[in-house]
Design a protein that fits this description.
Elements lengths: L3 E11 L4 H17 L3 E17 L2 E14 H13 L3 E8 L2 H12 L7 H8 L1
Antiparallel strand pairs: 1-3, 1-4, 2-3
């Protein structure tokens, strides 16, 4: 199996589905990843949100954001699965580099430096 990488996936499920169908759609993605060797770090369901623009005649969607580590070859297969899933209207993958991983680790600890405080103080002077 390929070297694993850390990814962030955000996807939007059709909000016209009932609660059980939305839950099943989220579980489908999560189960696909775990069955293919992914180590799920976090699944964050943001819930129903208004879309910035209409997609397939819809004005809102159920947003899900997840973080996981998996081999790159699985991502190619997952992209195909998501493209074929009629309940998923959009998705975006991010492959984390070392800087993004460091920021995520700091954020989880609540230790992300606030670099804008100095600039704001200077502007108010």
């Amino acid at each position: 199996m390929d070297k694993t990488n850390f990814y962030e996936l955000t996807y939007i499920v059709k909000s016209v589905l009932d609660e059980s169908e939305i839950k099943a759609a989220v579980e489908k993605v999560t189960n696909y990843l775990t069955e293919n060797g992914a180590k799920i770090d976090e699944v964050d369901e943001w819930g129903n949100r208004e879309l910035a623009y209409e997609i397939e005649g819809m004005h809102s969607g159920y947003f899900v954001n997840m973080y996981f580590e998996v081999a790159g070859e699985v991502m190619v297969q997952l992209e195909r699965v998501l493209n074929l899933d009629d309940n998923v209207i959009r998705f975006l993958f991010l492959k984390y580099d070392s800087k993004m991983m460091r920021h995520r680790e700091l954020a989880k600890k609540g230790e992300v430096p606030d670099i804008f405080i100095v600039e704001e103080e200077e502007e108010n002077s």
